[in-house]
């Protein structure tokens, strides 16, 4: 259904079960509980990404409270945004060991704790630790599972499902901006952060809704997806050497690990069956040993999968298009977050506060962002449309808007550009889909963790860099120009690498592979 793999020109070879007998898919895939997963992810995006997009309100309060430079104060917001995404690869390890549900619940508690502790901040540096690091890590522990679970539960309508769930960012930015403004006006920014911390405890409820699929269901999803793609039977003719050259991870280590696990557990369970004498005394010890053995093997298996994905001989980094995707992510996200952090200050400089108070520019971005995600998701799900091409066109539109924004000095002009920024940034809903097309469902958690980590680095340095440029030039113009040019460099990497990949000749399949 998705033309991304063919258009990119990269052979991924992750659908190895083509030709197997038909399997009845789980009714919860593409339906049933899958829509509860979308709802849970939607709420996560409201509470996490929406709150972070509204940090411009608190940034103004922190500037007045602590009387620090704009560059230093912007580090609070950028740390929270950046760490939320940077911890992605490490959260992938937690997911491999503990699963998405437990990881998200722990993250919800940590995020709420960061907001509450920040209410007692005595300096900007205190906020670095409580809000930037603590709340940031907690946000990352909830955000990645929310994205991964949607990818696991959907096969036919992945782009639409991701689009619907990530519209929570737009709703959240609109709602949280209004909420934080009201709370800061009525109760002060400290009490506002305390109340927001209490609201963030609802992330634990969102995590509890993330009911995991069984390994059997995941394998059925892989088979259904393989049979639904055009001419997927050609995968049987790909040679083993071609598969290795494309950086696809094999299943043999996992099968051996599962066999070892079963042997160890059987050896633990055997004394329970045969030992009648002293059974009451030894039963507790045997159960404890069995529990410890299961936990140890689960941790080893999760760490092995996580380590092989990043550092193994056939790691994700051997996929050249995926590496180009990472380079793009390093430059892209800062161009989106800089307006959210610094637009309130820009509006104040242009004496447009009266119009902005009626309808804030950041709210315009947030509202149109909602429609952008849904519309781009629907377009990408059309059989004749390439998700990859839609993704690239949206990026070109966004970078053009970033370079144009400094030229607008009226409210109407800024509102039009902000609306275009909101719509084109709807490509965020396509990022999990593109990532899954690149590496497959099995490695989505680790791969998307790398992508959001690169986005986190971009978000970490973007707003402070813009504030630092302002402290030197007393203008934000150069900040947008430099960010836009770096963004364009990342897009060029996305364009060049697939073209190089298409020109590389394919190896002829061996006789064993044909058989």
Automatic annotation (TrEMBL):
The chain crosses the membrane at residues 33-55, 75-95, 102-120, 126-148, 321-341, 361-379, 386-405, 411-434, 446-466, 478-496. Residues 37-502 form the Major facilitator superfamily (MFS) profile domain. Residues 220-233 have a biased composition (Basic and acidic residues). The keyword Transmembrane applies. One of its GO terms (molecular function) is monocarboxylic acid transmembrane transporter activity. Residues 220-266 are annotated as: Disordered. GO terms for cellular component: membrane. Keywords: Membrane, Transmembrane, Transmembrane helix. Pfam families: MFS_1. Its main location: membrane. It is found in: Membrane. It is a multi-pass membrane protein. PANTHER family: MONOCARBOXYLATE TRANSPORTER (PTHR11360), MONOCARBOXYLATE TRANSPORTER 14 (PTHR11360:SF239). This is MOT14 protein. The gene is Slc16a14.
